[in-house]
Design brief:
Elements lengths: L28 H11 L3 E3 L6 E3 L1 H20 L3 E2 L5 E3 H4 L3 H7 L4 E6 L2 E9 L4 H11 L8 E10 L13 E11 L2 H22 L5 E4 L11 E8 L5 E11 L1 H5 L3 E3 L5 E3 L1 E8 L1 H10 L16 E5 L5 H18 L4 E3 L7 H10 L4 E5 L1 H5 L2 E6 L5 E5 L3 H26 L1 E3 L3 H10 L3 E5 L4 H11 L2 E6 L8 E2 L6 E2 L2 E5 L3
Parallel strand pairs: 3-7, 15-16, 15-17, 20-21
Antiparallel strand pairs: 1-2, 4-6, 5-6, 7-8, 8-14, 9-10, 9-22, 10-11, 11-14, 12-13, 17-18, 18-19, 21-25, 22-25, 23-24
Amino acid sequence: MGRTIGPRETKVADEDRLVKQVSLKSEDFSKWYVEIIRKAELADYAPMKGMMVIRPYGYAVWENIQSLFDRRLKATGHQNAYFPLFIPESLLQKEMAHVEGFAPQVAWVTQGGQDELEERLAVRPTSEAIIGSMYAKWIKSYRDLPVLINQWANIVRWEKVTRPFLRTTEFLWQEGHTAHATLEEAQRETLDILALYQEFVETELAVPVVAGLKTEWDKFAGALQTYAIEALMTDGKALQMGTSHNLGQNFSKVFNIRFEDKDQNLQFVWQTSWGISTRLIGAVVMVHGDDSGLRFPPAVAPVQAVIIPISLGNWKETVMPVARRAEEELSRAGLRVRLDAREEFTPGWKFSEWEMRGVPLRLEIGPKDIKEHKAVAVRRDVRRKEALPLASLAEAVPALLGQIQAGLREQARDFLRQNTHTTDDYEEFKRLIETRRGFIRSHWCGDRECETRVKDETMANIRVMPLDKGEAAAGTCLVCRKKSDTLAYFARAY
């Protein structure tokens, strides 16, 4: 994580900053990221190396992500299940490309209580093996297909470096595993899920993404093809937000997952797997945060609106009853609202605290406001104040939250547009990656050697190749100058 930021990201003027206890994002992105996660109480480092504790405020974001995406999955016919955390080594070893891909990251259990285990158990790095063994038992006929199962679970991949939410030994995710009668059905599922991920991330997290195909050597271990959505963080680096894999018949042949088709012939099923994780929380922090701290999109914010009573005069008798009624009305309207009635802190301190925590909307209610039958609403996204009638808060606040959601999305889209560059000139490419960063769209011949040279010389690699072939007019490879109709998005990445 470096210090460079995008060319259009502006520093918040000191006189406009209520929050003084956090490093400036515009000056030290890496330090800011860690500080804001800990000071806003999203997460903290665990005593074990490589692990983090997700605190209630951060876990509330994950619960909102779960709820919103789970609703989408169930609407498309997927069902939730749960599979064991431990996977016998013999199952994992069945698909060698798969196990070799994960071998450096697998944690092993060798002892249970006082007894040495007869067979080592892997702590799941992913669940294709254990799920494949179960599908072999459950699937017998074409009538059993498709199988559309998802699980919300924890995953362990032994990491040497801890970056909260971005790279930790244990993380939370959802992983879908489906089985189909034909390759065409499996490919349609793979792309449908990719589109669902893109819609979800752009709509609910307000983070624009680029969707596309991964290179052959960057695909999921054991997959036929891997697709991904990639987002651009405001330090100019890319972050992989979700992946969708067409597994072909690789796992079904290994685990003997067969079905009798309509002509009574035995066929191997075609499978997919796909997942998003708590990494999404890190993306929300990096994409939307500013010098004063977090800026949560209302859709996933733990608290969508905070009510601050102004403690003047006999405020407990005059202001607090009005503030409580406002809280009740907004809660009944289905909003996540908090009344900060703590007496030991001043209103100014509370303004700073909730601004740092990224609450989308602050409602200030004081004696003067009550006389004028209004509340002062302060938007976190643009720091603009406006008066809202107390009598219609239940209608006005949701409308304002919708504007904030759309505003954050548009700001992020502007940043992506301004920091996506196009060139097939390698010298210009190297200048852009050093001075501007961001995504660079360049033609590529398809040879691994050309991408390896780019990576070795610039630390950038191919993130995805866009699915829209119309985006790729004929050109010449960035490196070797051969003719090419393949466009690739390059970037430095987390």
